[in-house]
Prior knowledge:
The chain is an all-alpha fold. The protein has two domains: about 1-80, Orthogonal Bundle (Rna Polymerase Sigma Factor, Chain: A); about 100-165, Orthogonal Bundle (Arc Repressor Mutant, subunit A). The protein has helices at about 15-30, 35-50, 60-80, 80-85, 110, 115-125, 130-140, 145-160. The longest helix has 20 residues, at about 15-30. The protein is globular and about 50 Å long.
Amino acid sequence: MTTLPAAPARLDLADYLAERRPALLRAARAIARNHQDAEDLLQSALASVCARWSGIRDHRAADAYVRRAMVNQHASWFRQKWRTHERATETVPEPRTEPTEPEEHELWPLVVALPPKQRSAVVLRYYEDLSEAETAGALSCSRGTVKSNTSRGVASLRRTISGTVVPAPERAHP
C-alpha cells in the first residue's frame, strides 16, 4: 500500500495534504477520467475525510482511507440523476488549464477508455503500485476479482495498442 514513509501515527491534516495531494489527484484522475471531475472527486473525498480526520487511528493508512472515499464518491455520482442529464455547451464557463500529469502520456487515453472496474483495478495495481490484496481492500472485492479485472483490462489495452489479439506473456511455473 502506498503510505507515508516513516511517518508518525498521528499527522496534521495540512501537512498530509501538502505532501500527498499530487498523488491523490493522480488517483482521482484515474478514477474520474478527466482533470475537472478528478478535482471535484478529490475535493469531495477530502471534505469527507477532513470531517473524520481525528477519528483515524493511524494516519499512515490515510491514503487508503482517501482512495476508498474517492471510489465511494465516484460510485455515488453515477446514482445521481442530474449527472446523467448534463450537456456540454459550446462556451467554456472557465478557462481550461493545461494538464501536467498522466493525460499527456500516450497510454492514458486508452486506460481511461477501459470499463470502470477494469480501469480501477489496472490503475490501482500498476499506476498506484498496490498489491492485489491492497487493491482488493480499496475496491471492496476479492483478490480473484482484482486479478480477473486486471487481466481483462491489460488484455484490452494490448488488443487496442496492437490492433490484434496479443497473447499474454508466458508465466514461469514452479
